[in-house]
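Changelog note: in this version the structure field was regenerated for every chain. One regenerated record is shown below for reference.
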Amino acid sequence: MSVLELVPQSLRPGAPRAGRAGRGLLAGSALAWVALLLLWLPLGVSGADPHAHHAVPGPSGGAPALDAWSPAWAGGWMLMVAAMMWPLLVPTVDRVARSAYPSWRVGLAATAVAASTALWLALGLAAASVAQVASVPAGSVWWQLAFVLVAAGAWRSARRTRLLWRCVKLPPVAPGGLRGVRDAAGAGVVAWRRCAALCGPLMIAMVVGHDPVVLVAASLSVWWEARHPRAWRDPVPLLLIGVAALGAVGGEFMTP
């Protein structure tokens, strides 16, 4: 069996279009990108701090402190998860929807998405809480740069590659009922594990702020690697991670 045969059909070059469930997920991701753009543009025009929507004033007028448990932080994080991660779930939700009875398709596909998204929320809250306890300021360039460099270092990890291939195959999904709900949630968990192996450090880098350059470069890197079965053998993902690192550093000088 070749490496290419291990990759889901929907992720191979020249793959068929996403199914109805997958298209709905892509539409949700597109709306999240629009919402993020609307958040970025007014801030850029006014010269405000791009990380202020999930921060509180720092002590003695210093750098704004991260507020990990605020609704604003959770909302911004969920938008970022939807924008960046939902496209990676398209093969999973299409597989779940195809396995389900017609009356269960939407519910089981939504269950898979909810399970994966909930895990991203839990990971984000955990990482942001650590940053808050450590007094990492919102938009910290050093936090972002450190985890971007971790992502670059892990890019050619053999252990990471083995995890990616183990998570390619999804478990069988029952077509409905409580077992179908359980199986769909399990498929979402398996998909999340693969996504976390692909881009966990890049996501953690952005718990302190959603710099546009970092977010776009990181998204393109993980989408490329998910789309191309031999992506770890070409320089494109690593080059895009490098762009993300430059974006993290450049954002420090562009913030008033």
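Spot check on this record: The chain is about 65% helix and 0% strand. Residues 1-15, 43-53 have pLDDT under 50 and may be disordered.
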